Amino acid sequence: MAIGSPLETGLANTMNVALSRHWWVIALRGVIAVLFGLIALTAPGAALLSLALLLGAYLLVDGVAELYVTWRAAQAQAPWGALLGEAVLSIIMGLIALVMPAAAVFAFVILLSIWALITGVLELVAAVRLHSSHGRWWLVFGGIVSIVWGLLLAAAPVVGAVVVAWWLGIYAIFFGGSLLVLAWRLRAQRPGLPGSGAVRI
Nearest 5°: CA angle at 95, between 86 and 112? Predict the structure, then answer.
């Protein structure tokens, strides 16, 4: 499709009209994001526990869906052992996250610690093969930072979880704020309003 073709222009105008008519949905998303961000900054434990509960609910639904897939595979006489194992694991992990959300948060921080340690070691290994003129020492620095961060998370997972929640809160506030600005712009471009036209974002 050529850029600026009548079909492309028509699709863009349709999207503009649809978004401007439903600006309040975007505004609602922005408000929810900002509120969640404020909760994450002021009460990081509550934010992390709520995420753990959502994860648990998702894993339960996913596990039940996987059980259905396993049943259909068994009916079709297809291999279903791995599917059943995955379904059972999802359900067990979902129940753990719902019954003990703090344990789910702790496990997430530990996994994040392991990831940071492995990433740091791999960056140091890559730095050995990188010429100094290509920024070897910056890669070494990045690897050391990753390793230190991973060790700190492993040594104090509770503090690490709080920091993660703070990061999440800052992101949610900025993201929600951008949605609110977008909703304000869309509201001014609602069809039928004097001077309303194409949405400029």
Answer: 75
For the stretch 37-71, pLDDT in tens is 898 888 888 888 887 888 788 889 888 888 888 88
CA dist 122 and 112 (Å) reads 15
pLDDT tens digits, 110-159 = 887 888 899 888 888 877 776 666 567 777 888 888 898 888 888 888 77
CA 152 to chain centre: 23
Count Cβ neighbours within 10 Å for each residue of 91-106 and write b for 16 or more, e otherwise.
bebbebbbeebeebbb
CA 136/CA 130 separation, integer angstroms? 5
Q: What does pTM read for this prediction?
A: 0.62
Gap between the Cα atoms of 158 and 176, Å rounded? 27
